[in-house]
Design a protein that fits this description.
Blueprint: E1 4-7, E2 11-13, E3 18-20, E4 29-30, E5 45-47, H1 49-54, E6 64-66, E7 72-75, E8 78-84, E9 92-98, E10 101-105, E11 127-131, H2 144-160, E12 164-168, H3 174-182, E13 189-191, H4 196-204, E14 212-214, E15 223-226, H5 232-235, E16 240-245, H6 252-255, E17 262-264, H7 272-282, E18 286-290, H8 294-303, E19 308-310, E20 316-318
Parallel strand pairs: 3-4, 4-5, 5-6, 10-11, 11-18, 12-15, 12-16, 13-14, 13-15, 16-17, 18-19
Antiparallel strand pairs: 1-2, 1-20, 2-3, 7-8, 8-9, 9-10
């Protein structure tokens, strides 16, 4: 029987009833990680325990099939397994095996980890569905530890000048990852209230975070971390400077929208070159790009001789699964 993948506010494996990170509520969905743009209150969802713990209550599924890295799950004659995605706590890639074909859905992922964590493994597959958030050539990030060192130097200079350094980072995942990365520099942190629940969830999962408190109007000699939007608490600080921590640092016009003084290209996603590396490491002979600059990445891959297409809202693509 011919099987297809479709795009309709999420990737669907037709014939299996499984949706991948859909943006509308579905009967059965795979949720790759806990960022709210990838989760809805599905009737049933496949995810890791860490992802479930990080989801806000309105987005927790009505029923959850919890999977661990290395374990497999049978579903409608297919075998599913999850593999570390390097994006944040609990984030995983999904390997879907059926009829002798292996399809890999990356979700959001990061290849180069920094802090001695090595490189995220990429399972071998014939068909690859890859996120393409930074799928244009100008998104090229420095080595993670070098970028972290730049952030640390900026924070130290601000503190020495009796100015509060404020790092603008996603409340879930990015905040905790930058805290871990900066831990070896001896900083203490003050977290804006939206960052606090995820920090507690990280600690509950056994992740050691450096000393932190919830942000007050006088954080003292602490580095403040806050989400990029809704910075009312930050504006109450006496003297401060802000730095956006994001891959969008490569796009000056974009990061200035957030009112940041500076930006550092420290991301929890693959940059353009890493996306190409993921395709090569997977060994896939058919690639589908989703999210972000999907059209651009697919076009570039085709120029390199790779069969690649961008998944779009009205598109149904034969996979031969």
């Amino acid at each position: 029987m011919t099987r297809h993948v479709t795009w309709d506010r999420g990737v669907s494996l037709v014939g299996h009833g499984l949706w991948l990170d859909p943006l509308t509520v579905r009967d059965l969905a795979f949720v790759s990680h806990a960022h709210t743009d990838h989760a809805r209150r599905h009737r049933e969802a496949v995810m890791t325990e860490a992802t479930l713990s990080l989801l806000p209550l309105p987005l927790k599924p009505r029923a959850a099939r919890l999977v661990k890295q290395g374990d497999s799950l049978e579903l409608d004659g297919a075998v599913l397994s999850v593999h570390d995605a390097g994006h944040m706590l609990g984030s995983v890639q999904l390997l879907f095996e059926h009829g002798g074909c292996r399809l890999l859905y990356t979700g959001d992922m990061k290849l180069r980890r920094g802090c001695g964590a090595g490189t995220t493994p990429v399972p071998a597959c014939e068909v690859l569905v890859i996120e393409s958030t930074y799928g244009r050539p100008h998104f090229r990030f420095p080595e993670p530890d070098a970028a972290t060192e730049g952030v640390a130097l900026w924070c130290r200079r601000a503190l020495d000048a009796r100015v509060t350094p404020v790092l603008l980072a996603h409340a879930t995942g990015k905040t905790q990852e930058i805290m871990v990365a900066l831990a070896r520099y001896g900083f203490r942190f003050a977290l804006e209230e939206r960052c606090v629940p995820s920090a507690r969830a990280y600690q509950a999962a056994g992740i050691s975070l450096p000393d932190w408190v919830e942000l007050t109007d006088d954080p003292g000699d602490r580095v403040v971390v806050a989400p990029p939007t809704g910075k009312e608490a930050v504006r109450r600080l006496a003297r401060y400077r802000t730095a956006l921590i994001s891959g969008w640092a490569c796009d000056r016009d974009f990061w200035r929208v957030f009112g940041a003084d500076v930006a550092f290209p420290l991301s929890d996603h693959c940059d353009f070159d890493e996306l190409l590396d993921v395709v090569e490491l997977s060994g896939a002979d058919q690639v589908y790009t989703v999210h972000g600059f999907a059209q651009d990445l697919a076009r570039h891959l085709r120029r390199r001789g790779v069969r690649a297409h961008a998944l779009q809202a009205s598109e149904q693509l034969l996979l031969g699964l």
